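Quick one before lunch.
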Amino acid sequence: MKILIINGPNINMIGVREPEIYGNKTYLELCGFLKDKAKDLELDVDIFQSNYEGDIIEKIQQAYNFYDGIIINAAAYTHTSIAILDALKAVNIDTVEVHLSDIAKREDFRKTSYISSYATKVFAGEGFDSYLRALEYFSNKLNSPEK
Ligand code: DQA
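Model of the DQA complex:
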């Protein structure tokens, strides 16, 4: 099962940015964590990060007919981007939304997620484990009899 993991703006700055919210581990460590966990779960993952909305949209479009699942942390674009939502709807690939922090318990402007209206599942507030929950969702799907 081929899974595309997309990280939006400033996720490459974790470990440096607001460690009290996002922790001390770096983006490189996140990528290593994701590759290790994906291997354990027998999932084939590609990881993409961009600070540009259009690049994220193009990556989602290119995923059409290629990936079986998308895990997306659209970061601040979560709360603003109808264009990313539309791209996800266009390719119609099973999508799980993830966040390191618990966006429901932060500022009011983070409480709206355009992506949540489309995503099959949302995992937030568990740090790196939010992504692990998403990988486990796809692994369960892969191994479920009604697949
Ligand atoms: C985030 C939460 C967003 O509100 C924020 O803009 C981010 C990261 C998270 O993973 O907790 O950049 O998506």
